[in-house]
Amino acid sequence: MKNVALNLFVSMSLILTLPVSEAFPENTADNFYPNPLLLNGKSVEFSIFSLVNTGKISLVKGNPDSELKTKIPFYIYIKRSGKIVDAYSYAHNNAVTEFEMAEILKFAQVGDQIFIDPAGKNEQVGRRIIVVKPEQLWPRFDWSYGLNKRKDGC
User: Fold this and answer.
1) pLDDT tens-place values along the chain, 154 residues long
2) Phi first, then psi: what are they for 32, rounded to 5°?
3) pTM of the complete model beyond 0.90
4) Domain encompassing residue 48
5) 37/46 Cα distance (integer angstroms)
6) Structural domain total, the chain
7) Angle at Cα 121 formed by Cα 116 and Cα 54, nearest 5°?
8) Parallel, antiparallel, or unpaired for β 98-100 and 83-84?
9) Inside any domain, residue 110
10) How many whole angstroms separate alpha carbon 40 and alpha carbon 154?
């Protein structure tokens, strides 16, 4: 009985003397973020990438929603049946910080896997794999065709 009371007293004193800032730090450099991929510079759910057919994709380290994010160079390539589709593509052989989804989808078929590998071996951000779905390969109709008279893309 004395041991239980002594253990309880020591435990409570340690818990109450531990500062809250030490127990629950707000900002640490090594926070884990489940989706380090950005689409056009904005954070989106990872499941959305299986529906996207245009836009610039990038990989970041740190909080994707903060201004302190750091872009990480990465390799991007397609695998079909375990083999790389275009082994001589620029983004497969050279690290990039941004890549246009439409460029990689030119060579894709339904069921292919798009691999996004960080270029640095010591990066905490791991490999991401996006499975190509039929929605990504369908052509999109431009409803605003003819409305833009300036022809500058805006």
Assistant:
1) 667 887 877 777 766 665 655 555 555 445 556 678 888 888 888 777 777 878 899 888 877 777 777 888 999 899 999 888 887 888 778 889 899 988 888 888 888 898 988 888 766 677 888 888 877 666 655 555 566 555 555 5
2) -100, 130
3) no
4) 37-137
5) 8
6) 1
7) 15
8) unpaired
9) yes
10) 15
